[in-house]
Write a structure and sequence with these properties.
Radius of gyration: 22 Å
Number of strands: 2
Order of helices and strands: HHEEHHHHHHHHHHHHHHHH
Strand content: under 5%
Largest sheet: 2 strands, antiparallel
Shape: globular
Helix content: 55-70%
Length: 441
């Protein structure tokens, strides 16, 4: 009851801030999103995210000056519209009841895009975006220090308190005490869910590298080191592979070929360390298991647990079979099927309950066409970002780092309640590039 009352109070404060100042209201929403497991919190039966979206929408209507800034990109509007229209068309080609599908598609679209679109209008200048990045930097330090506390103490009282208040979709599988190689416990941070924690921190890591905040170098590097450590401590192989993508593109963006060669040789030498070297050999085995995700023997060597590569192959096969059950694997069985019928359907067996990839759920519900339209949106965002980057005179591989690492993460382990955060950071970076291109002209 106390935590519920506290979140009601916080929601009221955020609502008041949003009504008084749209930009500050948006920042307050993002801060609360990062500091709490927002995706499980409901107030009076309404999801906290929807309360915040309503507050921002009212504020946006009140503060008309924010509508007069840089217009929302038509290219992105068209591609979002294509995604929405394709999802609606697929409803009429599948077997799941239409009302359930319309509800599922509407919620998906709102959860994916609404916060990012509202965020676009919150920052009227380049300096405002840099100030936002500064706030995110300090938030990162706070939440990552909690991650260190969780790893050292092997307890998570903050996240546990939310779990006890709102059980809902909250995941707790004993991972806080589950070792994975040299990682003695898998950190779930303030969200209490190690997969969401690792995946989301990689997004924040990319955002802070793309938009360097106006903070002292010591603060910037402290935040990035803490992010790196927490991503490793999450024990998520998909987050670790995403981190490797970040490192790879960052090296090519900022380092010379000679430095890249030296670093590459160092990594290969580390992986080659035999088990006869205590500690170091165990660390090398852990890294092998995280990098070579298709090699189940590497995971068994460190007793990693989790879904194996073979299990994912079986899930992919089963997904195709279920997608073909009523109509065709091209269109699937219909949006919302898993949410509404997973517990009663004879098609959904225990080996599918994890759905360890965005591909599996989308194949089942929207078929091959749904998957293609979904990733087409990703690639269009990426190409648009690269075009703006060229206009701004910026030469690095930060967009590749951000988009490709996230794609790898959701393909390996699914979307973990953070597509809204992905889209927020992607759009803010695009607006950042717009402002930079105006300066470079």
């Amino acid at each position: 009851m106390l935590l519920t009352a506290l979140m009601f109070f916080i929601a009221i404060i955020v609502f008041i801030i949003a009504i008084r100042n749209y930009r500050q209201g948006f920042i307050a929403v993002v801060v609360v999103t990062l500091l709490t497991p927002y995706f499980i919190i409901t107030l009076g039966g309404i999801k906290l995210t929807h309360v915040f979206l309503f507050a921002l929408l009212v504020s946006f209507m009140v503060h008309s000056q924010y509508k007069k800034g840089l217009p929302f990109p038509k290219v992105i509007t068209k591609n979002i519209a294509l995604f929405v229209v394709s999802s609606v068309v697929l409803i009429f080609l599948t077997a799941t009841p239409w009302p359930l599908q319309f509800s599922s598609v509407a919620r998906r679209v709102i959860n994916m895009f609404a916060l990012g679109i509202l965020g676009w209008f919150a920052f009227p200048s380049l300096q405002k975006i840099k100030s936002f990045a500064k706030i995110i930097t300090y938030c990162v330090i706070v939440i990552c220090l909690y991650g260190l506390f969780e790893y050292i103490s092997m307890t998570s009282p903050y996240a546990t308190a939310f779990q006890k208040t709102w059980s809902g979709d909250f995941f707790d599988g004993g991972y806080t005490v589950a070792a994975r190689g040299v990682i003695q416990t898998r950190v779930g941070g303030v969200w209490g869910y190690h997969l969401a924690w690792g995946q989301t921190l990689t997004l924040i890591y990319g955002f802070l590298l793309m938009i360097r905040a106006s903070v002292k170098p010591a603060v910037f590097y402290t935040a990035n080191v803490l992010l790196f450590i927490n991503i490793i401590m999450s024990g998520s192989r998909s987050a670790f592979v995403g981190l490797l993508f970040f490192s790879f593109f960052a090296f090519f963006s900022y380092f010379s070929w000679k430095k890249i060669l030296v670093i590459g040789i160092g990594i290969l030498a580390f992986l080659a360390i035999p088990k006869s070297f205590p500690g170091i050999g165990a660390a090398a085995d852990t890294m092998k298991a995280f990098v070579f995700v298709w090699d189940d023997s590497a995971s068994k060597d460190i007793e990693a647990g989790g879904s194996s590569f073979e299990a994912r192959q079986e899930q992919l096969t089963r997904s195709f079979e279920i997608a073909s059950a009523f109509t065709s694997p091209l269109v699937g069985v219909g949006s919302g099927y898993l949410e509404n019928f997973a517990d009663t359907s004879t098609l959904i067996t225990n080996d599918l309950l994890g759905l360890e990839s965005i591909l599996f759920g989308m194949l089942i519900e929207q078929g091959i066409l749904g998957v293609l339209f979904y990733f087409f949106l990703f690639f269009q965002l990426y190409f648009f970002t690269k075009r703006l980057q060229k206009q701004a005179g910026i030469k690095n591989y930060m967009p590749e780092m951000y988009y490709f690492s996230y794609c790898v993460g959701i393909i390996m382990t699914g979307v973990r309640s953070n597509y809204d955060i992905f889209f927020v950071f992607a759009l803010i970076y695009i607006k950042y590039l717009y402002f930079q291109s105006q300066i470079s002209r």
